[in-house]
Amino acid sequence: QVQLVESGGGLVQPGGSLRLSCVASGSIISIRDMGWYRQAPGKQRELVAVITTGGNTRYVDSVKGRFTTSRDNAKNTVYLQMNSLKPEDTAVYYCYCRIVTTSRDTYNYWGQGTLVTVSS
Predict the structure, then answer these.
(1) In the chain, what's the furthest Cα-to-Cα distance?
(2) Quick one: three-class SS letters along the chain?
(3) Which residues make Cβ contacts (< 8 Å) with residue 102, sequence separation at least 6?
């Protein structure tokens, strides 16, 4: 069994910052890509940021220069630092990890989602 637990969402004013965290636990041998999706009301889920095992990152154009993703492999944790937040960043944010389990299978696992609301 593998679990991903997210934290760090909330209400913030435009221009503010939030940091999301996502911790993976359970029957894990290794974690490959880690990242974040988001889904705004009435919109499709979109990929926000990805970080590879080697630390390479990529971002959706709308967050480049404002969001930074990082990982702590020793803690099986991925972070999303969000700065200069805009109302259009309001969404439920989901972390994901591509995990090699102790049964030698590889799956994508998802966090429960955390709501980020950017509003004055």
Answers:
(1) 48
(2) CEEEEEECCEEECCCCCEEEEEEEEECEEEEEEEEEEEECCCCCCEEEEEECCCCCEEECHHHCCCEEEEEEHHHCEEEEEECCCCHHHCEEEEEEEEEEECCCCEEEEECCCEEEEECC
(3) 27, 28, 29
pLDDT at 103: 92
Residue whose token pair is 């969000």: 82
Positions in the chain whose pLDDT score sits under 70 = none
Looking at residue 75, its pLDDT comes to 97
Token pair, residue 69, equals: 């993703």
Instruction: Give dist(CA 80, CA 96) in Å, integer.
Output: 12
